[in-house]
Write a structure and sequence with these properties.
2 helices; mainly alpha
Length: about 45
Protein backbone atom coordinates (compact mmCIF):
# COMPACT_ATOMS: atom_id res chain seq x y z
CA UNK A 1 0.00 0.00 0.00
CA UNK A 2 3.02 2.26 0.46
CA UNK A 3 3.13 2.93 -3.28
CA UNK A 4 -0.52 4.03 -3.26
CA UNK A 5 -0.84 6.29 -0.20
CA UNK A 6 1.82 8.37 1.50
CA UNK A 7 2.09 8.81 5.23
CA UNK A 8 1.92 12.56 4.68
CA UNK A 9 -1.49 12.16 2.98
CA UNK A 10 -2.78 10.21 5.96
CA UNK A 11 -1.38 12.66 8.51
CA UNK A 12 -2.77 15.68 6.66
CA UNK A 13 -6.21 14.12 6.49
CA UNK A 14 -6.19 13.91 2.68
CA UNK A 15 -6.90 10.19 3.04
CA UNK A 16 -9.27 9.00 5.74
CA UNK A 17 -9.00 5.75 7.66
CA UNK A 18 -12.13 4.42 5.95
CA UNK A 19 -10.48 4.83 2.54
CA UNK A 20 -7.34 3.11 3.81
CA UNK A 21 -9.41 0.15 4.96
CA UNK A 22 -11.09 -0.04 1.55
CA UNK A 23 -7.73 0.08 -0.24
CA UNK A 24 -6.36 -2.61 2.06
CA UNK A 25 -9.37 -4.85 1.44
CA UNK A 26 -9.01 -4.44 -2.32
CA UNK A 27 -5.31 -5.28 -2.14
CA UNK A 28 -6.09 -8.38 -0.06
CA UNK A 29 -8.69 -9.47 -2.62
CA UNK A 30 -6.23 -8.93 -5.47
CA UNK A 31 -3.59 -11.01 -3.68
CA UNK A 32 -6.09 -13.80 -3.03
CA UNK A 33 -7.12 -13.82 -6.70
CA UNK A 34 -3.48 -14.00 -7.81
CA UNK A 35 -2.79 -16.91 -5.46
CA UNK A 36 -5.89 -18.72 -6.68
CA UNK A 37 -4.91 -18.19 -10.32
CA UNK A 38 -1.43 -19.56 -9.64
CA UNK A 39 -2.85 -22.63 -7.93
CA UNK A 40 -5.30 -23.27 -10.76
CA UNK A 41 -2.58 -22.92 -13.40
CA UNK A 42 -0.57 -25.67 -11.68
CA UNK A 43 -3.39 -28.20 -12.02
Amino acid sequence: MANLVTLEAVKSGAVCVEDLLKINALLDMREDMQIQAQQESRK
